[in-house]
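Reopening this ticket.

The earlier resolution said the output was attached, but the attachment link was broken on my side. Pasting everything inline this time so it's all in one place.
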Amino acid sequence: MSTLLEEALSLVQVGGWEIDVDSGLLYWTDETFRIHETTPSEYTPTIESAIAFYTPSSAPMIRTAVTAAMEQGKAFSLELELITAKQRLIRVEALGKARRENGRVVKIFGAFRDITDRKQAEEKKCRKCQVFNEVKQEKDRLLSLINSISDEVWFSNNQKQITLVNSPVLKEFGLEWLCTKDVKTFIESFELFHLDGSPRPSEESPILRALQGEAVRNWEEMIRSKITGEIRYRQVNANPVRDAQGNIIGAVSVVRNITERMKMEKELVDAKTAAESANLAKSQFLAMMSHEMRTPLNVIMGFSELLVDDNLCQCQDKDQRTDYMSRIKRNGQLLVHLIDEILDLSKIELGGLQVEKTELNLSELISDVSSIIQDKAEKKGLLFFMSVDGPLPYTCLSDPIRFKQILLNIIGNAVKFTVKGEVKVLVKSTPANSKLHIVVSDTGIGIASEQVNKLFQPFSQADIAIAHQYGGTGLGLVISRKLARALGGDVVLVESKQGVGSTFEITVGLESAKYTKYHKIQQGYFQP
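Inline output:
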């Protein structure tokens, strides 16, 4: 090998070698000696001794390659391990090529270089790639895990920036909106409250507390969006994230939407309260009904005993006995009325109440009711005023018995709860929507605002004390409203003021109404 070529190869740290096939002599360049960490004065290379430098795994490979080159002229390129003269393990690259003369291989020559640094760099890079891949796989597994969780998962760094969220968060808020937010700005986009509705400062937010090193468990709160006004209840768990040295590098927060749970809990509480109120109302109703029924029964029993007692009966004159019989009859009628109301309510509650619509003369029905009410008003010393606004149908389809029951209940209540003053009834119809309106106003005791909600509830009276004073079951309004609705109308409280009076409006549907400009209803004030 020429000296010029050897010098050129040594500059790039590549050694050379050559084998004379006929003599079997092996020649190394100086760079090849350097790679083997020996010198020409210390070592004379031969094929066998040179192969002995290689490790047990590499020696068979170089032996086979050299033999094939010498015998068959095959070129080779191998990466091998060898142990130098100084017992250092290195990685080398050996290349060989045959030279032929007259078709016969006469020499094998090649290049030889130390590739230990390159292989170590490649392995280091490979290890880095492997670590990177492992980290990526771990991150992918983590993302897959947190995305499978139905709760919201938030990650923040120690600069209070949102760094990672799972799919429920993205679905709720959107990626573009979240990218513009840090933790504090995001928190401040909501109004924050404790569960009792009292405001709370943003500094109490679990993720901010976790960034200060606190582990927050089962924190429950109410939030209201400043953008949409939506109210949401949440349960939050938050933990600080630390590095190997224990320094806080961020925080993770898991948020569960408990709005439905809170709604169900409230519904359960409301249902429990309603059930307790209903039980109390029924107990009060039963107590009141026992009193209401006992009173006429006592009268009936008492005067009946007086009439059947022979000794007392001889002492009584005809007028006295007639008075006793009248008292028994009145209290019997009262008892029948109480029982009818209870039976009506039972039918209504069970959906078994039927209305029978027939053709009725409206003027006659209202006049009959007016006469009955006028008599009751006169006995109490009240003014009673009846008026008609506009034409009324002289006939229509409705249930005359139930219609009359409604009027007697509502107008009768007005008289019943009015001590002095007047009761006014205004009757008018609206052909456009086929409705009859009866407005009943009085100057009675009125209804306290906090008692209004109890008016149309079964087994409930606005004021128990007033019920004992004026009597009655408290079922009249409930039954009247149910009946009015069955007739295509309603009963509503228009206004009421305690100590001033009340106004109720009755509406019923008018089917097949036939109108006339005349009616037989007597109008004006009826004075006692």
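Reporter confirms the inline version is readable. The mean pLDDT is 82. The domain at 149-257 is CATH 3.30.450.20 (Beta-Lactamase).
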